[in-house]
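Q: My labmate handed me this sequence with no annotations at all. I'd like to see what the chain might look like in three dimensions before we decide whether it's worth expressing. Could you predict it?
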Amino acid sequence: MTITGFLILLVIAAIAGSLGQALAGYSVGGCLVSIVVGFIGAYIGMWLAGQFGLPEPFPVTIQGETFPVLWSIIGSAVLSLILGLLTRRRGVL
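A: Here is what I predict for the chain of 93 residues:
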């Protein structure tokens, strides 16, 4: 994989992570965190899809690497929701 292909995958992961965070209503951090959330969300989403026997409806293939966009967005939303529930702010007096 070339640097260009890797950068394109990072941009797709950032967009998927941002969309997942927006759906969950909880933003973990900035752009770099969105990239990480997008990649972790792809693993979570693919695991969930495998558990329920669901196919990959919208994969993106860049230089031989396949990135599951829809499952990444869903997995990112699940991850952001869990992080939001675990780290929610306590009421201020």
